[in-house]
Amino acid sequence: MSKKIAVYPGTFDPFTFGHLDVVRRASKLFEKIIVSVAENKNKNSLFNINERRDIIQKVISNEHELNNIEIKVFSGLLVDHVNDLGAVAVLRGLRALSDFEYEFQMAGINARLSNEFETIFLMASENQQFVASRLVKEIHSLGGDVSSFVPSIVLGHLESKKK
Ligand code: PNS
């Protein structure tokens, strides 16, 4: 039987404890999770795509129980990337109701483009409900403490961007 692979796509600018929570929980449900970092040219990202990939790689390597995770980058359509990998699912985290409309639209469009995988939503854990990359960047740039939102590796990279 082929391995059940799930792709967890995102911009991950930067990777937060919310993202890590999704990876941890999904890693128990699938044989392999591929965290796929999107190029996303429309978004003005703080970290470039290779930086984002390398940061996630470091965070995951530090989590010793996570041994079925791979990190990749992609540009172009998510559906093509997912089908190239032979994945059976796309994972997305859901926080509040405000996430729903965008996620609903994306899942619907992706389903129209390809029927070879399912989009599966994991509800954010209670203590990660409010974590958002955009706010982490804003708080950090204004001198606020983001250590409860991002792994220390990410914090270090945020610090070095500031210098
Ligand atoms: O972390 P984000 O920014 O919410 O992730 C959004 C992402 C990267 C999953 C989405 O923008 C995406 O799939 N981009 C790839 C291009 C694509 O397939 N666009 C059509 C989506 S319906």
Ligand roster: 4'-phosphopantetheine
Which sheet architecture does the biggest sheet show? 5 strands, parallel
The helix fraction, in percent, is 40-55%
Measured between the Cα atoms of the first and last residue, the distance is 50 Å
- Average per-residue pLDDT, rounded, comes to 95
**What overall form do the CA principal axes indicate?**
globular
Number of strands: 5
- Order of strands side by side in the largest beta sheet? 3-2-1-4-5
> Strand fraction band?
15-25%
Query: From N to C, what is the helix and strand string?
Result: EHEHEHEHEHH
Give the uncertain stretches in residue-range form: none
The total count of helices amounts to 6
Radius of gyration, in angstroms, nearest whole number: 15 Å
Secondary-structure class: alpha/beta
Topology of this protein?
Blueprint: E1 5-10, H1 17-26, E2 32-38, H2 49-62, E3 69-74, H3 78-85, E4 89-94, H4 97-113, E5 118-123, H5 133-141, H6 152-162
Parallel strand pairs: 1-2, 1-4, 2-3, 4-5
Bound molecules: 4'-phosphopantetheine.
4'-phosphopantetheine (PNS) binds at residues 9-11, 38, 40, 77-78, 106, 109-110.
